[in-house]
Design goal:
Blueprint: H1 8-14, E1 17-18, H2 27-36, E2 42-43, H3 45-63, E3 68-69, E4 75-77, H4 78-84, H5 86-89, E5 96-99, E6 102-106, H6 111-125, E7 133-142, E8 158-169, H7 173-191, E9 201-206, H8 221-242, E10 245-249, E11 259-268, E12 271-283, H9 286-289, H10 292-300, E13 306-316, H11 317-327, E14 341-347, H12 353-369, E15 373-380, H13 384-393, E16 399-403, H14 405-410, E17 412-419, E18 424-425, E19 428-431, H15 436-443, H16 446-455, E20 463-464
Parallel strand pairs: 3-7, 9-10, 14-15, 14-16, 15-20
Antiparallel strand pairs: 1-2, 4-6, 5-6, 7-8, 8-13, 9-11, 11-12, 12-13, 16-17, 17-18, 17-19
Helix pairs in contact: 1-11, 6-10, 7-8, 7-16, 12-15
The structure holds zinc ion (ZN).
């Protein structure tokens, strides 16, 4: 791909996503950004489709893999965060306000809610609750970050985590961690067409300093030892199976538990950067504060020990999107692309013009009826290349369908899907018979295959996006 000076912020604007007041954008968008507030991205038309499609895929992906799918409230009584401890050590990053004399907080983390979900299941169904217990949420959180530290989608005050919590028996922890890694690999490869090259991807283990357990690192020695050996076991098995290397950093764990991060090295304008992908983090703090250990022992028996694990496959959707947009030069995969089809009628000024128009309009309308996001552009042969350059450098349709004089005469469409893995477009001649759009969709069917394999179906959020062209 050709080098470009665009950054993810430019791509985000093209995606119709207002991320930061910026003098280069038209006044209207600048004012939008001013209204939403610094660090609070506004997902408008294109960005909205992307979000809905992605969250739909994620919910199905997780549901098929035994996760409960939750949607927890955006605000909570600050009591919840008092119990979780966030009010003590995270208060300066929280938005807190009062209603009728009570303190409320805007959710800065999903964890306390997910633990409540587990506990309420346990209270109601007792031993019938099977372990590991897994809850997923595309959970939007808000955190106060100083305005000087905000940058595009990379650092924001409102973001969405592809968050899940796993409550697992100690002896099944290794399996749970390997499972998360495999989910991440599937998601990134099948949905985002990323090449997880073992030469570029590493696992980083953040471990405790054993001499400081009980001081800087909370929890028991047994907990740390068991959790860290589960992490190492998992890292070894991932290395043996997939070839990804790992390394450990002692003393780098959070005070509440060790973790494993998946880091990918990417090159951008000659500079090597780290892209943090999935993460698996143990927590010995929350289960104590919510008395999870006591309740588990009461329900499953005295010698049952569990871990609570936080995990994300992408991290935050916004941050992931920002790096991905840079990585893919602003181009989203078919199922997530705001504009899936651009149908272009190329008029010549001859007598086939009316037929060209009719065929193109019919294809576009059928595509929209099938639930695809399609746009229709009528242009002339002389202005075609300029128009194509314009939409290719901004809105980047996943598939372009051309109808010109020759196509109209011979009864076919020229279909050019963008093949993500190869980072290029390929041309196909698709004969038009019966339902025109069905023939075109058949010809580009493999664009949805990865998602269908993972989620069971590819979401179709219909939209006539003609106005974007
Ligand atoms: Zn968590």
């Amino acid at each position: 791909m050709k080098p470009t000076n665009k950054t993810h912020i430019d791509y985000a604007y093209e995606l119709d996503l207002v991320v930061k007041p910026d003098s280069r954008v038209p006044l209207f968008e600048r004012e939008y950004a001013a209204f939403t507030g610094a660090g609070v991205p506004l997902f408008s038309i294109g960005g909205g489709y992307y979000r809905y499609a992605l969250i739909d895929i994620l919910a199905r992906f997780h549901a098929r893999r035994g996760y409960y799918v939750a949607e927890t409230p955006m605000i909570a009584s600050s009591l919840l965060y008092q119990v979780s401890g966030h009010l003590d050590f995270f208060r300066k990053n929280m938005f807190i306000f009062q209603i009728e004399g009570h303190d409320y907080a805007i959710k800065p983390m999903n964890c306390p809610y997910h633990i409540l979900i587990f506990l309420s299941h346990l209270a109601r169904y007792r031993q019938k609750v099977r372990l590991p217990f897994k809850v997923f949420e595309a959970g939007r959180v808000h955190r106060y970050e100083p305005s000087g530290s905000l940058y595009g989608l990379l650092r924001v005050r409102a973001f969405t985590q592809d968050d899940a919590h796993i409550i697992t028996r100690e002896e099944e922890a290794t399996e749970a961690i390997v499972g998360v890694f495999e989910e991440m690999k599937l998601l990134l490869e099948k949905i985002f067409h990323m090449d997880l090259d073992p030469g570029k991807v590493e696992l980083r283990l953040s471990l405790s300093d054993k001499s400081k357990i009980g001081e800087e690192f909370m929890g028991t020695l047994h907990e740390w030892e068991t959790a860290e050996s589960a992490l190492e076991e998992a890292a070894k098995s991932i290395r043996d199976k997939y070839g990804f290397n790992y390394y450990s950093e002692e003393g780098e764990a959070a005070f509440y538990g060790p973790k494993i991060d998946v880091v990918m090295r990417i090159e951008e304008s000659g500079i090597e950067k780290e892209w943090q992908l999935g993460t698996v983090q143990f927590d010995f703090n929350l289960p104590r504060r919510f008395r999870v250990y006591d309740m588990v022992r009461e329900v499953y028996g005295e010698d049952t020990r569990v871990f609570i694990i936080h995990r994300a496959l992408m991290g935050s959707i916004e941050r992931f999107l920002s790096v991905y947009l840079d990585y893919m030069k602003g181009r989203l995969p078919f199922t997530l692309a705001p504009l899936q089809f651009a149908v272009i009628a190329i008029k010549t000024g001859g007598d086939t013009d009316e037929e060209i128009s009719t065929i193109a309009r019919r294809i576009h309308e059928e595509l929209v009826k099938m639930g695809f996001r399609s746009g229709l552009l009528e242009t002339t042969k002389t202005s075609l290349s300029g128009e194509v350059r314009r939409i290719e450098s901004t809105i980047k349709p996943a598939v372009t369908v051309y109808i010109g004089a020759r196509e109209a005469r011979e009864g076919y469409a020229t279909v050019r899907p963008f093949i993500h893995g190869e980072r290029r477009r390929v041309s196909k001649r698709v004969p038009l018979s019966g339902d025109y759009a069905t023939s075109i969709v058949e010809a580009v069917k493999e664009l949805e295959d990865g998602v269908v394999e993972l989620a069971g179906y590819a979401p179709r959020i219909p939209g006539d996006l003609s106005h974007l062209l």
